[in-house]
């Protein structure tokens, strides 16, 4: 029995046999064709392109039904590549001018293309390189007339899929009834594989480094997608223990569904507004279905990331209207574009920065591109008359930025006045607290905005100097650091004193082991990934505010993250023992 630790990215436990997926090595030899074959070769290529587009469209449409929206964004990126005239031109030129076979022309062009992405040193680009290889594999498979489709089609038993890495298409095409878990060598919390596995509800552990060499197909494995632990060839007692845990988890999840329409209220009557985070309008139904009382974070930049061209005012407006209509009066916090850093558009790829997380991102980027910013603000303002709409600026790092952003908003209001277009002049304006300087200067900002939302994903990385997507420093990335908690506490206190609402919308809010602490620290609004709403609600409904406050005081007296984490784990285990057991 051997134990491996990676990063758990999609919760759940599976006990089953392993299947190693070996990488298909696509080595395409360079072979010249005769001039008389050029036309036929081009036709072969265009047939392969057509068939690939059809496959991707089908994959996108089937895999996004019921799953999250990021999948659609990925496949739209694939389709965008296959429709990119410049790229297609290099394929055809390869055949016509260089007399390459279609396979070689495709492979050579895409590898050149991938190289440009690889040189950027940015995690986002590394992920995109996988997409490019994915397209290469798909086109070559079509050209060679064999459908290698993961070679998983003959699997009859449920298995844990072990791979060095998986491309987005591979992950999304997995049959959930057969693939019970995923373990991969590569990847971090934000990799495409992690995102898709999570949305498909398959337990997954990434960043295992060398698991493909440590497991053989047929070995029994226990995969815990929450703790990130993989046990290879466990003994009978361990298997039994985990099977029981798996069953308890299933019952626990089922019971949670009953909480959907009950309030997130502590036993002694303190109400917590549990809201959901979304990236695309069609996530609203699922979010409400999980019991959210509104949308506390709409990451509008996904409108850009899902499409190759810049969205128009009407594109923005249509998305906002869709969300607002579906919410039927429930509040929606529209965050203005948070582009840059790991959220690159093709346009930005042309002018890369050395330290994009510290560069021209978020509100800085919007203020440097006023036309783009105004297009979005016009759409938000126009939509503001249709429901309970609030606007929020991301990553504000100086009071001047907040003032400038509000000034632009006022300019747009004036333009709408002149055009006689209605909007809500009292639209609440908030800001995200994502950098330590903003948390420390919360009192200054509180005078100038209507609400705060604490973005812990970024606040943690900027406070601790730990890249949130880098698996090499993942063990240093924690919200349980006393410095992070001190900043959060400051923001909550300032907000309460200034009588403006404070919410928290980073992943920390979805971590059930932090719920008691956050409530005890005074947070009354949490906006989290919809999947976690029922479990967080369960904790809230099981505690008394006074006890949560005691926990918060105790935590603030600790000096080390480890102490804090283990104390919070013990406290949470007492509240929801059924969620533990391993
Ligand atoms: C955050 O930083 O916590 C946040 C919610 O924003 P994002 O994850 O989109 O950067
Ligand atoms: Mg952020």
What does this structure look like?
The protein has 24 helices and 16 strands. It is an alpha/beta fold and 582 residues long. The longest helix has 27 residues. It starts with a strand and ends in a 7-residue tail after the last helix. The chain binds phosphoenolpyruvate (PEP) and magnesium ion (MG).
Approximate strand percentage: 5-15%
Structural class: alpha/beta
> What CATH first level of the largest domain would be assigned?
Alpha Beta
Number of domains: 3
The amount of helix comes to 40-55%
Looking at the chains present, what oligomeric state does this protein adopt? single chain
- Output the CATH homologous superfamily of the largest domain: Phosphoenolpyruvate-binding domains
Low-pLDDT windows of residues: none
Distance between the termini: 16 Å
Strand order of the largest sheet: 1-8-7-3-4-5-6-2
Largest sheet: 8 strands, mixed
Beta strands, count:
16
The backbone outline, from C-alpha atoms, is: globular
């Amino acid at each position: 029995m051997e134990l491996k630790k990676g990063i758990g990215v999609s919760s759940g436990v599976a006990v089953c046999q392993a299947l190693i997926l070996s990488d298909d090595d696509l080595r395409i030899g360079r072979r010249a064709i005769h001039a008389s074959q050029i036309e036929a070769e081009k036709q072969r290529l265009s047939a392969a392109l057509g068939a690939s587009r059809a496959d991707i469209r089908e994959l996108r449409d089937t895999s996004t039904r019921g799953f999250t929206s990021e999948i659609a964004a990925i496949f739209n990126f694939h389709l965008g590549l296959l429709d990119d005239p410049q790229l297609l031109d290099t394929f055809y030129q390869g055949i016509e001018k260089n007399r390459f076979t279609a396979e070689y022309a495709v492979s050579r062009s895409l590898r050149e293309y991938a190289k440009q992405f690889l040189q950027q040193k940015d995690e986002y680009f590394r992920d995109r390189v996988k997409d490019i290889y994915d397209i290469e594999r798909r086109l070559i498979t079509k050209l060679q007339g064999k459908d290698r489709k993961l070679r998983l089609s003959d699997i009859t038993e449920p298995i844990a899929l072990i791979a060095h890495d998986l491309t987005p298409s591979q992950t999304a095409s997995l049959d959930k009834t057969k693939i019970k878990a995923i373990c991969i060598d590569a990847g971090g919390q934000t990799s495409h594989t992690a995102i898709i596995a999570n949305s498909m509800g398959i337990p997954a552990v990434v960043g295992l480094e060398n698991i493909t060499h440590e497991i053989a197909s047929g070995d029994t494995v226990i995969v815990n997608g929450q703790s990130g632990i993989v046990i290879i060839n466990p003994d009978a007692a361990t298997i039994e223990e985990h099977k029981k845990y798996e069953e308890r988890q299933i019952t626990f999840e089922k019971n949670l569904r009953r909480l959907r329409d009950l309030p997130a209220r502590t036993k002694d009557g303190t109400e917590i507004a549990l809201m959901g985070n979304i990236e695309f309008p069609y996530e609203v139904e699922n979010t409400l279905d999980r019991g959210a009382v509104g949308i506390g974070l709409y990451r509008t930049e996904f409108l850009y990331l899902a499409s190759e061209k810049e969205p128009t005012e009407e594109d923005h407006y249509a998305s906002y209207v869709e969300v607002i209509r579906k919410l039927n009066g429930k509040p929606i916090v529209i965050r203005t574009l948070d582009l840059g850093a790991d959220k690159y558009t093709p346009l930005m790829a042309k002018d890369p920065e050395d330290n994009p997380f510290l560069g021209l991102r978020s509100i800085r980027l919007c203020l440097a591109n006023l036309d783009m910013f105004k297009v979005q603000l016009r759409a938000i303002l126009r939509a503001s008359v249709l429901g309970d709409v609030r606007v929020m600026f991301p990553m504000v790092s100086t009071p001047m930025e907040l003032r400038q952003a509000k000034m632009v908003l006022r300019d747009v209001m004036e333009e709408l006045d002149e055009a006689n277009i209605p909007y809500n002049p009292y639209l609440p304006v908030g800001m995200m607290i994502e950098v330590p300087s903003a948390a420390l200067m919360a009192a200054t900002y509180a005078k100038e905005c209507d609400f705060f939302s604490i973005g812990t994903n970024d606040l943690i990385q900027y406070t601790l100097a730990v890249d949130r997507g880098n698996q090499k420093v993942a063990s240093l990335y924690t919200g349980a650091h006393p410095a992070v908690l001190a900043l959060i506490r400051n923001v909550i206190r300032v907000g309460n004193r200034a009588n403006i609402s404070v919410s928290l919308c980073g992943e920390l809010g979805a971590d059930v082991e932090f719920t008691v602490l956050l409530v005890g620290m005074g947070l009354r609004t949490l906006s989290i990934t919809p999947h976690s709403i029922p479990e967080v609600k369960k904790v809230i409904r099981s505690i008394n505010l006074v006890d949560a406050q005691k926990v918060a005081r105790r935590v603030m007296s600790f000096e080390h993250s480890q102490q804090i984490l283990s104390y919070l784990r013990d406290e949470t285990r007492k509240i929801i023992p059924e969620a533990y057991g391993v």
